[in-house]
Amino acid sequence: MSGETIRLTAAQAMVRWLSVQMTEEGERFIEGVWAIFGHGNVAGLGEALHGIGDGLPTWRGQNEQSMAHAAIAYAKGQGRRRAQAVTTSIGPGATNVVTAAALAHVNRLPLLIVAGDVFANRRPDPVLQQVEDWGDGTVSANDCFRPVVRYFDRITRPEHLLTALPRAMRVMTDPADCGPVCLAFCQDVQAEAYDWPVAFFEPRVWRIRRPAPDPEELSEVAGLIRGAARPVIVCGGGVIYSGAEAALAEFATRHNIPVIETQAGKSSLSQAHAMNYGAAGVDGSAAANMVAGAADLVIGIGTRLQDFTTGSRTLFGGAKLVSLNIQPYDAAKHGGVSLVADAKVALEALTAELGDHRAEAPDPAIRADWLAAVDAHCAAPSGNDLPTDAQVIGAVQRATGEDAIAMCAAGTMPGALKLLWQASRHGYHMEYGYSCMGYEVAGAMGLKLARPEREVICFVGDGSYMMMNSELATAVMRRVPFTVVLTDNRGYGCINRLQQGTGGAAFNNMYVDSRIEVQPQIDFVAHAGSMGAHAVKAGGIAALEAEIAAARSRDIPTVIVIDTTAVPGPGDGLAGAGHWWDVAVPEVGKTEKLRAAYAGYLQNAARQRLVN
């Protein structure tokens, strides 16, 4: 070190800089780094991470995609207030993370990806695992990240970090632009030394801004609410990321406006809140979809208005749409009236603007009838039939307290949980923007790291478990306890039902309908146990409840396997639950079943409203 500079490698400079980027609460924004080392990052970043030690801790994962899933779940569990980084080698190590990057991008969650890249000096080209483009010498495998991250940079000189790192942090801490960042770090540059300004390593606090609404937009939206007889609020994940839960509860209660939930927004209000009418849309409750269908004004708050929420644009009929969102892109969707602002600030401003105005409340019996139907549907079975997913959910609900968080990602369970899980505040964690099979186990670990004081229940089907389960071993090694409820219906039961519901024949989803010689008999208990988890098979609903309670005493993951039926869907027996979903049906085909499905498709598609 001399004067106002310090000589470090680029990798050493990166980790030192990341270690002093702080939240307003005085914690590192990047809590630590998940790492699988290879020739593209072991000598440069590996040495730097070893050197900084607990200043920026490193954790070993089992798969690049799943350790990124854990980092994403951590960020979601922290309400985007903190994040984690993932480093990989070049080639397959990097491209394994592309799926996770897309997941973070869709869900607007921060993730720092530091992927090893080819040699900037090109002396050893083509280096091991290098993807060569015959027409573009600047391309590497890491260019796959460009469409699935919010910010991409290739570090080909050490001093590029002076601008790239602050830009990366700006994206991850910006509530409007929040998402994943990829820094493709050329492996020779990682090891290259540079005289860095000492001031570059001064600690910096990153404040998450709260933009106030434009006065004219606020006035217009307040006028629309005053003029509406039957408004309804669609609550999205932006409510949670804004910390606007109390503001939403006050707004809905004071102005008598029912709240219906998206997957990301569920648990902003507890299910016990009188204005919470449950899940909206395709996987929606009878109560929520009834008030949505009758609404003359829909107020979206922090939601992307995905097709599951809008019933593929058929749910809200002729209602006017207002969209309160911090991201103008989302606020302008579906021709809605935009209110671009932080959710908490805007709700407080709207409450003040509306004063004592109260809308016409829906009949509370709608909500009461729905909740009674949920209780009946989730009750323990009386016979010896295999339990349904709903009955499994009921058992877990009865065996846990208000501190439990139900989490999931793909298959039948997301729809069933959104319908039936009666969440406490922040008692729900669903990755449904990308609905990524394989997120569940790694995500449960990341969520538990973010919320160690809460009981984490991971619902996963046998199909998703088979796709990605290896971070169970990591959770055992790190002593991260959570409970996995593994429902085994012997195949992809959710898509099997969709396949048949759209006129198709049962084909290639359930093992029994696949072209195989021997039906598999997978011992999930033995498999999970081989990685060190406590694993057990529950013989029924009563046994499941007992095992859920017993799991709370352990400091390692518990995997409870239970056989379930593949036949019923999540809304069976619940009149009016659910809504149409636009899944294209073949226009011509040989069977009457397919022709009938196409006729029904045309009827529903005719109700789609493409412009407000």
Structure characteristics:
612 residues; Rossmann fold; 6-stranded parallel β-sheet; 24 helices; 37% helix; globular; EC 3.7.1.22; DHS-like_NAD/FAD-binding_dom
Q: Reading side by side through the largest sheet, how are the strands ordered?
A: 4-3-5-6-8-7
Q: What is the β-strand count?
A: 22
Mean pLDDT, all residues = 94
Just name the CATH architecture of the largest domain: 3-Layer(aba) Sandwich
Number of domains: 3
Question: For this structure, what is the CATH homologous superfamily of the largest domain?
Answer: Thiamin diphosphate (ThDP)-binding fold, Pyr/PP domains
* Low-pLDDT regions: none
The outline comes out as globular
What is the CATH level 1 assignment of the largest domain?
Alpha Beta
Give the distance, in angstroms, between the N- and C-terminal Cα atoms.
Answer: 63 Å
Tell me what portion of residues adopts beta-strand conformation.
15-25%
Largest beta sheet, briefly? 6 strands, parallel
Helix content percent band: 25-40%
| Structure class | alpha/beta
* DSSP helical segment count: 24
**Rg over CA atoms:** 25 Å
- The CATH topology label of the largest domain is Rossmann fold
Keywords: Hydrolase, Thiamine pyrophosphate, Transferase
Domain Thiamine pyrophosphate enzyme TPP-binding: 411-562
Family: Belongs to the TPP enzyme family.
Protein name: 3D-(3,5/4)-trihydroxycyclohexane-1,2-dione acylhydrolase (Decyclizing)
